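Think of the structure tokens as a kind of shorthand, similar to the way a musician reads notation: each symbol stands for something richer, in this case the local conformation of the backbone. In the example below we present two proteins back to back. Begin with the first one, reading the sequence and then the tokens, and try to describe in your own words what changes along the chain.
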Amino acid sequence: MRYFRIVASIVISSVATISAAEEFSDLGKDLFVEHCARCHGIDATGKGSDAIDLRTQPADLTKISERRGGVWPMLEVMSILDGYLKVQEPRDDMPIITELNDGPTVEFDTGNGLVTPIPSKLIEVAEYLESIQSPKPERYVP
């Protein structure tokens, strides 16, 4: 009976972990669909319904890591999403998604030993984009 309780608690905790991860990913995907899919497409390949009307062709967001030699650049992606890197060209048609900066924050290690509060929605979308990379990233930088 004791063995059964231990196994049952491990199974239950595993199920809870899996569903929490799926919920986390779903929110990132939902935010992407709401704010990004019109231009980047539901599949994030840059072929959304509004893409034809833009001066700059939307990027294929499934190839971010590939374009950076297999590295997933988390802070760079978040900076593009929140508008911090708005000064970079040729993204003149890329809107600043201010809603991603609203709501609760979570602690994020920026890679230099400093932990800073980052809006959770911003992290959710960036992690969703990381999850759809093709091929998968080989290395990560904050």
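Once you have a description of the first chain, move to the second and do the same.
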Amino acid sequence: MDDATARTRLQNMLGDLERSIAVLRGDPVAVRERSAADAGADLTDADRTRAMLDVATRQRNAVLSALKRLDEGSYGRCLDCGRTVPEGRLEARPEASRCVQCQAKRERRR
């Protein structure tokens, strides 16, 4: 993927993520009389929202890092081994910072 295409895709992703984060951080629903079941459902919804916000924030940070690598001229190189990240991986995940092998090693360590 050429740098211009990568930059466009990453900027579009960033815009989408920032809109999603803004929605997830939106004002809480006004408190009203509720049953205990409603209160439990609200906690579950809050946990789900917090988890989605965490994922969106991590992905936003990955996109910002990818844009920085584009600016520095290191986009498409694995952060760990320095080899070229396969084109197909960048097509699927433009924010990818590692080749498949290094990403797999990293995930096994978790």
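Compare your description with these statements about the second chain. The first helix runs from residue 3 to 24.
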